[in-house]
Automatic annotation (TrEMBL):
Residues 130-158 form the Intradiol ring-cleavage dioxygenases domain. Belongs to the intradiol ring-cleavage dioxygenase family. It comes from the Bacteria. The keyword rRNA processing does not apply. Signal peptide: none annotated. Fe(3+) binds at Y158, Y193, H217, H219. InterPro entries: Catechol_dOase_N, Intradiol_dOase_C, Intradiol_dOase_core, Intradiol_RC_Dioxygenase. This is 6-chlorohydroxyquinol-1,2-dioxygenase. Its cofactor is Fe(3+). Keywords: Dioxygenase, Iron, Metal-binding, Oxidoreductase.
């Protein structure tokens, strides 16, 4: 029996056109998408003008995308979708370090440095000693773990955002743990910075009365043979944007203590944080 489109039967009509060649997963995802999308449109009673604004917004979002900018991911970030997808795909047992969003500024192949090296190459910012241990859920240190770190500089920019200003690999490095599982390096106390807000996503945030800032954080990518890959940040305790991160990346367990370092005049701050990996696929 043919079902024609009506307001009441909109979901059944659209989903009823699904071809038999649609894969099982594609059918499940699209049927749910149609159901929720139509429910949303009916719930708020979208006007023709609002529908036009939405189409224009999505068009402009696509037009600003390029090799170095992905506005749709930024939109996903600011709506909390990126963090939700990350949370669903990285459920970990109690005691394991929590994941958070990867961010757009990681660069493959950062130099492997010696423990204790300084990754700040531009001489800007308040120096900070970062230290801790990589271990498993049973408390055993993990030897040979790669601790890949990166952060913004004192002005709130990553080196790839200022290739003509910052030295290459500024505030980046990889450190390989020894038998004790410990890592140690010097960098700077990170600073808060805004996500790119000169496009459609920035306009949306402004319309909603939201700021574009991320709280200060240090990025960590921790990998080890036989362990699940960990993508995370440590956030600076007391940062004013912790509870209003523009991309919802903050988890309470990832807020790190930054202590004034009175013993070493060359290093203003120190931050201790241990990473606990889960055994499994690397």
């Amino acid at each position: 029996m043919t079902t024609y489109f009506t307001e009441d039967q909109s979901v059944d009509t659209v989903n009823g056109r699904m071809g038999i060649d649609a894969g099982d997963r594609a059918a499940v995802v699209m049927e749910s998408l149609v159901r929720h999308l139509h429910s949303f449109v009916k719930d708020v009673g979208i006007t023709q003008a609002e529908w036009g604004l939405a189409i224009d917004f999505l068009t402009r979002t696509g037009q600003i995308c390029g090799p170095e900018r992905q506005e749709f991911i930024l939109l996903s970030d600011t709506l909390g979708v990126s963090m939700l997808v990350d949370a669903i795909n990285h459920r970990r047992p109690t005691g394991a370090t929590e994941n958070t969003v990867f961010g757009p500024f990681h660069v493959e192949g950062a130099p492997i440095r010696q423990m204790g090296d300084d990754i700040s190459l531009d001489g800007k910012g308040e120096s900070c000693l970062f230290a801790g241990q990589v271990r498993d859920l049973d408390g055993h240190p993990i030897e040979g773990a790669c601790v890949d770190v990166w952060s913004d500089n004192a002005d709130g920019y990553y080196d790839v955002q200022q290739p003509d200003i910052q030295p290459q690999w500024n505030n980046r490095g990889r450190f390989l743990t020894g038998a004790d599982g410990r890592y140690l390096f010097r960098g700077i106390k990170p600073t808060a910075y805004p996500i790119p807000d000169d496009g459609p996503v920035g306009q949306l945030l402004d319309r909603l009365g939201r700021h574009p800032y991320r709280p200060a954080h240090m990025h960590f990518l921790v990998t080890a043979e036989g362990c699940e890959r960990l993508v995370t940040h440590t956030f600076v305790e007391g940062d004013s944007y912790l509870e209003s991160d523009a991309v919802f990346g903050v988890k309470e367990a990832l807020i790190a203590t930054y202590d004034r370092n009175s013993d070493d005049p060359a290093t203003a701050w120190s931050s201790q944080y241990d990473f606990v990996l889960t055994r499994g696929s690397s």
